[in-house]
Design brief:
The structure holds two protein chains of two kinds.
Chain A (H helix, E strand, L loop, with lengths): L27 H7 L15 E7 L5 E7 L1 H4 L4 E5 L1 H5 L27 E2 L5 E7 L2 H8 L3 E6 L6 H5 L14 E9 L2 H7 L2 E9 L2 E2 L7 E7 L4 E6 L4 H12 L6 E4 L15 H13 L3 E4 L2 H7 L2 E2 L2 E9 L5 E11 L12 H9 L8 E9 L14 H19 L3 H8 L8 E2 L5 E2 L4 H12 L1 H13 L3 E13 L17 E7 L5 E5 L8 H13 L6 E5 L16 H28 L6 E4 L2 E4 L5 E4 H10 L13 E6 L7 E14 L4 E12 L6 H20 L29 E7 L16 H18 L8 E2 L3 H8 L3
Parallel strand pairs in A: 1-13, 8-31, 11-12, 16-17, 22-23, 29-30
Antiparallel strand pairs in A: 1-5, 2-4, 2-6, 3-5, 7-17, 8-15, 9-14, 10-11, 10-13, 15-16, 18-19, 20-28, 21-22, 21-27, 24-25, 25-26, 28-29
Helix pairs in contact in A: 10-11, 11-12, 11-19, 15-16, 18-19
Chain B lengths: L6 E3 L4 H10 L4 E4 L5 H6 L7 E4 L9 E4 L2 E5 L4 H6 L1 H6 L1 H6 L6 H6 L2 H7 L5 H9 L2 E6 L2 E6 H4 E3 L2 E2 L6 E8 L5 E8 L9 E10 L2 E10 L6 E2 L1 H7 L6 H11 L13 H20 L3
Parallel strand pairs in B: 1-3, 2-3
Antiparallel strand pairs in B: 4-5, 5-10, 6-7, 6-10, 8-9, 11-12, 12-13, 13-14
The chains are: A alpha+beta, B alpha+beta.
């Protein structure tokens, strides 16, 4: 990958001194983490701490006949052994449905099962001991007798009319079904010059965070209070859940997320083991730690992206796509994930298909199908890569059918940059996007015409290079329309408290959280900018329900857009308070003063009047010298929830350049290009890091990552030796360019950029490989594009 | 993922190591670099009572030239095969394979002897012992014995090493000026176990190939000598027809496993392509 430092650090020539937003500043916490001073739950120790390990089901679907834990209870170092019944006495069940997904169903879940296991790897019995090794020793002594039940391990088996039902009493094996229809779909298909079709398949994959999931629960019976150190994105969500399911008052539940080693959506769902650990601490009366090991992660972290899509497009003779019709079948786990469900991904797939383009009609049918597999839910760029690949694969077919160049067919179909505001056929309201400008910029960035000429020349020599492009729309800055409306207690607002310390420094406590993406860095920049201080005196504190105001935290691309606006408004409020106090001290009018680089200055002329430190000293220690009645509020709180457009949509386009070794089916990714528009850029360095990281995850999906199951529902590649993640050697340089179309819904104008890299990279790669294989008469319709699939398509074996 | 408790011994001689093994009633594992054994312990796939660390046994260390033979101590790290001048000079095929072995962190600890003794059918070094015609020096309670590479690899993870025996050193015939070699592998990611890989060592007399030894890995339960393919090129110049004949003959040499990720037919195809590439590389090697 490119060194991200393609411009001098801190230098942004168009920015005035004192302006921090827009500068490519490095993350302040990066140095600490690189120095080994990170504070991860995985490494944390608490006094009197015990360790949990779990006995897991070896069967994908089975009835539990008998559990014998006596030998385990007697094993050295064991404090307690708990079964489903033990924890069911403490914890109320949960159901992962949302009210606005009509007809959705899912079986209630408990920390550990009572009668039945529904996926291979499900935790059945918990052992708590003085060390993890002792707990694992005792796990070997637990005897569980199972009786096989029919296994649903693929879509066709589960969808067959006579299929055994995964849940007794359910009418079918569908968790959720949704249909959309808009415009005269059938008429347009009947009269279209061309109809292009595709059957596409997407591999199930998972998040593979560097630090696995980790939790330490410490229940204190003397105060009926619970402290949880938890590697999570969403501490307040878990505070609410632990409080309600274990009946502990919310104010007595503290969830603290210190440094978190990557998350990508993995660490905001309820996991059975995590819920169990709370109860285990209550039973033990001691802190209990549980860290998922890598093998456990593969069978217990959420999976995602397991889709099979049948799609077609009605294409005019001029290359205009008039209508699309899609059927999406997606394989989830044995239940719907709580509290965000396993239906959001499919819902976003069918609503995002065709989103960059001007369609006249659209029809979609979504089936969300239960399987005896690990649960699925939101993982980075939820649904986007599938929607994008379906749309862009059809776009390539439309180009081929009409003899148009891929850039030209898109130019004819993209929503014009002057057509906003407008609404998609699936109901998405777009404020302002920049598809046409991004398309033009990408063509220049790639040096497209030269690449095409080179491709033709090399093809004649038997070297097969391919070029693929893919446009996307990204969902960011969600309002309560996302979860709140469905009854989930997931906040769409965020809160910040900012204070001036007695020394004149600044502390910002904010509800958005940090997992390595630089949340704290950008919040610091915004506060410095809108308060009027240097970046290095602003300390940002996140991730602790005991400390920061309540808020949604970090998910779905909201940290910059929503958290950033919260910080901005709080900083402005605090600045006004500072200037009020300064005016009282200086016997001046607040409106005549300004705060610049932590100095109170005359707005006109800029003469320095008083330092911020002096204002703080007087306010905190010599309030007696202030005029009577001076309201010296040097701490402010502010909450903000987006209330304009339901989502702030962003857009962009990717280009991928590959070379396929057609003899052996391996693909070398030569270069990847991204033009993205995330609105106002707070820190270009971090935007580019986000995009690059996202591209790598998307290329992982395109070429490597896939959770493979056998017919018995066993995950057959659940280790890092067999489940391949992209590594630096296989990754290309990633060239990035920006458009900036700020949202007018906020003063900050920022939207999200966290999904921009992942949303379209696998689609661009799929198109690139197919472009390379076209002269050989082969086509791929499945990702990951493994050597086996490429050689099969080529008829090599 | 924690290993079961085990006792640990670090003998300073082969005799002590054998005594430690005997003292454990056979429930012991020898450890050198630990790059395969430690994960197996952590996953509880193996749980010996005693772990006998071989790292302090002097005769298992070092690389030296004994006349026409290069003696490579079993404890030689993978990383040393990249840098050791004697290996580069006299065992160029091993040096050519070394950059393909895993990743730097693993190469810093993993040992050549450990890799050969484990005999993973997807590993580079065991197959290269076959290609180089190495002899394995094995220590037992009753003394030393030597086993030729051709007789060493018996089945999946099964070698001529008997329980309690220790692979002490590898004896590789030193390559001379007439030798040519080639190594390549096809892996989805750099450093992964290969889908198919192989190496060739041969002598060249003018344009003619003499005494070729072709060894492939990831094509069956053990590393494999491609004797039928060797027969097609022995005594011939490597023209296109000869290479094509060798590729056809290869089918009878290998018996790859069938799995969903890489079907047997695909491995056969890849092995044929690999052999072609190796032979063309060999031709332009000197």
């Amino acid at each position: 990958m490119n060194a991200p430092f393609d411009r001098p650090l801190g230098a942004a020539p168009h920015l005035e001194p004192g302006v921090h937003v827009g500068r490519p500043l490095p993350r302040p916490n990066a140095k600490r983490l690189v120095a080994g001073r990170g504070n991860y739950v995985t490494d944390m120790k608490r006094p009197r701490m015990l360790h949990a390990a779990f006995v897991r089901s070896p069967f994908a679907h089975a009835r539990i006949v008998r559990i014998d834990v006596e030998a385990a209870r007697a094993a050295p170092g064991v404090a307690l052994v708990a079964t489903g019944e033990d924890l069911a006495k403490l914890c109320t069940p949960w159901v992962g449905t949302l009210d606005h997904f009509k007809g959705m169903k899912s079986e209630p879940q408990l920390p550990l099962p009572l009668e039945r296991v529904t996926w291979s790897g499900q935790a059945v019995v918990a052992v708590v001991a003085e060390s993890r090794a002792a707990a694992e020793d005792a796990c070997e002594l637990v005897e569980i007798e199972y009786e096989d039940l029919p296994v649903l391990a693929d879509l066709d088996t589960a969808l067959a009319p006579d299929a055994p039902r995964l849940v007794e009493g359910f009418a079918d094996n569908l968790c959720f079904r949704s249909a959309l229809e808009s415009g005269a779909v059938d008429d347009l298909f009947a009269s279209a010059a061309h109809v292009v079709e595709a059957d596409l398949a997407f591999g199930r994959h998972t998040g593979v965070t560097l630090e696995p999931r980790a939790i330490i629960a410490d229940y204190d019976a003397s105060e009926h209070a619970l402290t949880v150190h938890h590697g999570t994105q969403t501490p307040f969500q878990f505070q609410d859940l632990y409080s309600r399911h274990y009946g502990i008052p919310e104010a007595r539940v503290r969830v603290a997320a210190p440094d978190v080693g990557g998350s990508f959506g993995v660490k905001l769902h309820v996991y059975h083991e995590d819920m169990a650990v709370i109860g285990l601490s209550m039973l033990a009366g001691r802190p209990v730690k549980y860290v998922v090991d890598r093998l456990e992660a593969f069978v217990s972290d959420i999976h995602a992206r397991d889709h099979r899509v049948k799609a077609k497009a009605a294409v005019g003779a001029d290359g205009r796509i008039l209508a699309m019709a899609v059927e999406d079948e997606t394989a989830i786990g044995a239940f719907s994930t709580y509290p965000r469900t396993s239906a959001v991904e499919g819902n976003q797939v069918i609503r995002l298909i065709g989103a960059p383009y001007r369609l006249e009609a659209y029809r979609a049918d979504l089936k969300v199908v239960f399987q005896n597999k690990t649960q699925t839910s939101q993982y980075r760029a939820v649904g986007h890569p599938i929607a994008c690949a379906v749309t862009e694969h059809l776009m390539e077919k439309a180009a081929a059918a009409t003899g148009l160049d891929p850039f030209e067919v898109r130019a004819r179909n993209l929503i014009s940059d002057d057509a906003y505001p407008c609404q998609s056929l699936t109901g998405f309201k777009f404020e302002q996007l920049s598809h046409e400008a991004c398309l033009a910029k990408l063509k220049t960035l790639m040096d497209y015409d030269r690449l095409r000429a080179e491709q033709a020349e090399l093809c004649a020599r038997g070297i097969h290079r391919g070029i693929g492009i893919a446009a996307f729309v990204e969902i960011t800055n969600p309002t309560p329309a996302f979860y709140g409306i469905g009854g989930a207690r997931i906040s769409a607002q965020d809160g910040a408290v900012i204070k001036i310390t007695p020394s004149g420094e600044v502390r910002c406590l904010i509800s958005v959280t940090e997992q390595g993406q630089g949340t704290e860095a950008i919040i610091g920049q915004i506060v410095a900018d809108y308060l009027g201080v240097s970046r290095d005196i602003v300390r940002v504190i996140t991730g602790d329900t005991e400390v920061t105001p309540h808020g949604g935290a970090t998910w779905a691309c909201r940290g910059a857009g929503i958290g950033g606006e919260t910080a901005l408004q709080a900083a402005k409020k605090l600045k006004a308070n500072v200037l009020n106090v300064a005016a009282a001290i200086l016997q001046a009018q607040p409106g005549d003063l300004d705060l610049v680089d932590a100095e109170v200055v005359d707005k006109a002329g800029g003469t320095v009047r008083l330092s911020l430190a002096e204002v703080a000293r007087i306010a905190y220690f010599r309030s007696d010298t202030l005029p009577p009645g001076t309201d010296a509020q040097l701490t402010v709180a502010h909450h903000y929830a987006p209330s304009g457009y339901p989502f702030a949509f962003t857009n962009g386009i990717h280009g991928c350049h590959v070379e396929v070794d057609a003899e052996i089916g391996l693909v070398k990714i030569l270069k990847h290009f991204v033009v993205e528009d995330c609105g106002r850029i707070i820190n270009p360095l971090l935007v580019e890091e986000q995009v690059r990281g996202g591209v790598v995850q998307g290329l992982g999906a395109a070429f490597f990552e896939e959770c493979r199951y056998d017919e018995a529902g066993q995950l057959v590649n659940g280790s890092l030796a067999d489940y391949l993640v992209p590594m630096s050697c296989e990754m290309p340089d990633i060239v990035i360019a920006h458009m900036e179309t700020p949202t007018r819904d906020t003063e900050l104008g920022a939207k999200g950029c966290g999904e921009a890299g992942t949303a379209a990279s696998s689609a661009a790669a799929l198109n690139a490989v197919n472009d390379a294989l076209a002269p050989l008469g082969a086509e791929l319709t499945q990702i990951p594009m493994t050597p086996a699939r490429i050689l099969k398509a080529l008829g090599a074996y | 993922m924690k290993a079961r408790a085990f006792a640990y011994a670090r003998p300073s001689s082969l005799a002590e190591a054998h005594a430690a093994f005997a003292g454990a009633d056979g429930d012991a594992s020898f450890i050198s670099g630990g790059q395969s054994l430690v994960p197996a312990l952590a996953m509880r796939l193996q749980a010996p009572q005693v772990l006998i660390d071989l790292s302090a046994i002097p005769e298992m260390r070092g690389v030296r030239l004994d006349g026409e033979t290069l003696r490579i101590g079993a404890l030689t790290r993978h990383a040393e095969t990249l840098t050791e001048p004697l290996i580069r000079a006299h065992a160029p095929l091993l040096a050519a394979a070394a950059p393909f072995v895993a990743h730097p962190a693993i190469r810093n600890r993993g040992t050549v002897g450990g890799s050969v003794a484990l005999a993973d059918p997807a590993s580079e070094f065991p197959a290269m012992m076959l290609a180089m015609g190495a002899e394995m020096e094995i220590s037992g309670v009753d003394g030393m014995r030597r086993v030729a590479a051709d007789d060493f690899f018996q089945d999946l993870y099964q070698t001529a090493i008997e329980p309690g025996e220790i692979l002490v050193a590898l004896h590789v015939p030193a390559a001379g000026p007439r030798h040519v070699c080639a190594f390549d592998e096809m892996a989805r990611r750099r450093g992964d176990y290969a889908m198919v890989g192989g190496g060739i060592l041969a002598e060249r007399d003018g344009a003619v190939i003499v005494n070729p030894r072709i060894a492939l890995f990831s094509v069956g339960p053990t590393p494999v000598r491609a004797r039928n393919a060797e027969a097609e090129i022995a005594g011939k110049a490597l023209d296109a027809d000869t290479i094509a004949a060798a590729q056809r003959a290869l089918d009878a040499d290998i018996d790859p496993l069938d799995d969903a990720e890489i079907p047997a037919a695909m491995r056969r195809h890849l092995a044929r392509v690999l052999l072609g590439r190796l032979l063309r590389k060999l031709e332009t090697c000197s």
